[in-house]
Write a structure and sequence with these properties.
3-stranded antiparallel sheet, Rossmann fold, Arc Repressor Mutant, subunit A, globular, 249 residues, 2 domains, 10 helices
Length: 249
Amino acid sequence: MFNQRQLEIIDLLQTEDRVSVSELTQRFGVSLVTVRQDLKKLEDQGVLKRTHGGAIPVDNGYDTSTRMWNNYEQKLRIAQRAAEMVSDGETVIVETGSTCSLLARELATKRGVTVITNSVFLCNFVRRCPSLDVVLLGGSFQHDAEANVGPLTKLGLAQFSVDKCFIGADAISAEKGVSTINLFRAEVARAMVKSARKMIVLATSDKVGANAVASSFPLTAIHTVITDKDLSREGQTLLEQAGVDVITV
């Protein structure tokens, strides 16, 4: 989706408060027109905000947007592989998180797909994808995570029964299963398990073998983990011994 030059601009904005068009033309040896086209594309995707003569990072509080551009290429491959598991006309549950939002955008290339989600960020991320139907679950809004959580969210989930649920993970381990940094998000994830026949976890390989604060559900609840090719042998064994199908991309 992004070329190498655009990915480098994203990396620059992880450490810089602002980038200028003139600096970027010198850095990459391209024209002003090319740089402006790059910045417009990145702004359209919610990565940055254009200013007079340059661009600044987007501030999203919890920074799901910023998290997305960390290990972006791995996350995109994971999302693309996950999208292959969804058929035209299917309804799926997609949790909050950066890789899950990328998945939703990939699903917009299919016909008649409906996404049920608690992620306000995801809804905003796919706002320019009219072919994708999105059902936003209600609940208590978490400003930092840009997601709805709590009893109303769980009540909404209980009304649905789908084949597949796609969920992100802050950590995956034998001790805590899939875990997250947020207790309320963990509660919603447990409710998602009850509403789907197959739980598919999307996570970069650095999450496997780690622990986070709140346990969402055990490894035995997972049908498939999609991760990147840097998954360690120990991580692969951990998942396979729990009966989890492992897909590396």
